[in-house]
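Q: Structure tokens for this one, please.
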Amino acid sequence: MRDAYALDQDYAEWTSGSRFDPAERWPWWIELVSGSVARGVDVRRARIVSEPISPYVRYEYELTSGHNIKAGESVRWLPRREASGLALPDNDLWLFDGMSVLFNHFDGNGEMTGEELVTDPAVVELCVSAFTAVWARATPHEDYQPV
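A: Here is the predicted structure, written as tokens:
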């Protein structure tokens, strides 16, 4: 849900014009997700973005096919203006089987400051409901044209 994260070496290389194969850079992610998908796990990622997109989101968009999609994720994009009216958590998160949610916490510069695993049914249900609503409105990666 953020428009930028901490600026790492990969992003710095990308902004300088260097391009790389995400599968070679992050093989552990490809293996983790593809193995999970092979076991029948549905791995979905929804990105809520401001438009026009930030340079960081452009970087994410350009890597998505060779990284997330190649691994077996389903990815959708939702322009932030289309998320108005949705009750959304304020933090990035991962949902696990509708039973728990892992919140990722960041500082103002996009540096990760920690994670928080929550199993409270009310919080999990709020997050499941929010993700379901976002997913229904969002555009599949292959159809999304960033502005």
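A few notes: The mean pLDDT is 93. Residues 77 and 100 are 23 Å apart (CA to CA).
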